[in-house]
Amino acid sequence: MLAIQGFIFDMDGVLVDSEPVYMKQERDSYARHGVVLDEAELSRFVGTTQRHMWSAIKTEYGLADSLHSLMSEHHRQLMGVLNSAPLPPMSGVTELLGALNQAGIPCAVASSSPRELVELILRNAGLQPFFNEVICGDDVKHSKPDPEIFLMAAKRLGIPPSSCVVIEDSAHGVAAAKAATMFCIGLLNPNSGRQNLSAADLCVHQHSEINHWFSGQ
Q1: Would you name the residues annotated as active-site residues?
Q2: More confident residue, 177 or 20
Q3: Which residues, 6 or more positions from 156, have their beta carbon under 8 angstroms from its beta carbon?
Q4: Pairing state of beta strands 133-135 and 107-110?
Q5: Reduced to 3 states, what is the DSSP secondary structure of residue 196?
Q6: Where are the beta strands (DSSP E) in 3-128?
Q7: How confident is the model at residue 175 (pLDDT cuts 50, 70, 90)?
Q8: Is residue 109 classed as helix, strand or coil in its secondary structure?
Q9: In this structure, what DSSP letter does residue 206 have?
Q10: CB atoms within 10 A of CB 33
Q11: Predicted pLDDT at 1
Q12: Which of 18, 32, 70, 148 has fewest C-beta within 10 Å?
């Protein structure tokens, strides 16, 4: 029996099915700089910060533009797309969050995306009221798989890491959760690329399975 005191949700590919949108925008951004990546190469950046992604691309492909200008250009483009086509919550998310709120379990978002983007997506999806804390890529020095973001979320919730449950759809995110000594549920989202979530404590295909698991605790 797990003594659950808090839930921490990744956002992209967990709360909203954003990875297909991100991958298309990344392809478009890379193409402007003459860089072409296949899906497997794109998948290695799932769950990491934009700084981590653009640092790697800039180094590997010897791009002349500054890291700041590469990130700013991509961020503007992404904000425009998500403003004009808001993403709905994934199936079962609202029900799960409602059940957790009903049970008095505090919830946090721990997303590698920039705060402006996270707040836009949560607001458009109507999910902001469910969360006590929102930690973003801007708040941490180290990208997942480093556990920093999850440890920060637990601290802000005032809960020991070992009493937190993390929901993640990426290999980097699962590794970060386990490094933070948290119970990790891997959400197998086919749109997040072929992610190896075998290190998770529990793997599911739907949020309804998490709700069912939680109600049995």
Answers
A1: 10
A2: 177
A3: 108, 132, 133, 135
A4: parallel
A5: coil
A6: 6-9, 107-110
A7: very high
A8: strand
A9: S
A10: 14
A11: 52
A12: 32
